[in-house]
Amino acid sequence: MFSSAHSGLLEKLFHYIDLHQDEFVQTLKEWVAIESDSVQPVPRLRQKLFQMMALAADKLRNLGAGVESIDLGSQQMPDGQSLPIPPILLAELGSDPEKPTVCFYGHLDVQPAQKDDGWLTDPYTLTEVDGKLYGRGATDNKGPVLAWINAVSTFRALQQDLPVNIKLILEGMEEAGSIALEELVMREKDHFFSSVDYIVISDNLWLSQRKPALTYGTRGNCYFTVEVKCRDQDFHSGTFGGILNEPMADLVALLGSNAFCTKENSVLFSLVSGSSLENFIVIVKLYA
Ligand SMILES: [Zn+2]
């Protein structure tokens, strides 16, 4: 239960938010319009990711936050090309030692999206249909990141003191395995994160228009590649069929089995029963 002073403040905050809804939606529209796809490894999209992170950094700086944009070097792709990794933003608002510090995590990259995938509207044009907003990243995860920023800006606009110190860690490679995030977190353990009391992973969804989800645990993802390789030369199917191992047949058997094995037949990795391949991945190379 909120005290009456609290509920009075909340009323003021919500009133301000309602009055400025169009402004907030307009910003989300601008963010959704940036095709910050981290999955397709092409220079044009990496540029979009840099643009997205710079826009978010500006937004936070305009709010009065101290923002560090951490350069994370480049990513070596299996095909030999090297692509720059978008910076991770570390932002800070307030450092009152009397207040707890809450750190919000969010990501500003998205999965690929094309109208042909089955979208009813252009994925990069935020569109309202029946009171719902459709656009790539609107909920995962640009909207939730903006929600925190909007909440802070509302406190600021009403000249209300924030009850907590706020930190944000925003990345642009979440959909591609959060490349470089772990390294940065370890590096900042005793610096940026040393004063953090609570972490809120704000990468979530709403269960209905009025019911947000509160996730208190995740299974996580791990990705893997399976490569089955046979002889380099062609063999006549009539002469050799049925004698030589066939990589396609091996691959099908492998994917249908409960375990991945090395060529010595030792179990490399067991699939947890009930998990799907999409959710469970490890890097394995097999040579038939
Ligand atoms: Zn997400």
UniProtKB/TrEMBL annotation:
InterPro entries: ArgE/DapE_CS (IPR001261), Cyt/Met_Dipeptidase (IPR051458), Peptidase_M20 (IPR002933). GO terms for molecular function: metal ion binding; peptidase activity. Keywords: Hydrolase, Metal-binding, Protease. It comes from the Eukaryota. One of its GO terms (biological process) is proteolysis. This is Beta-Ala-His dipeptidase. The lineage of its organism: Eukaryota, Metazoa, Chordata, Craniata, Vertebrata. The gene is Cndp1.
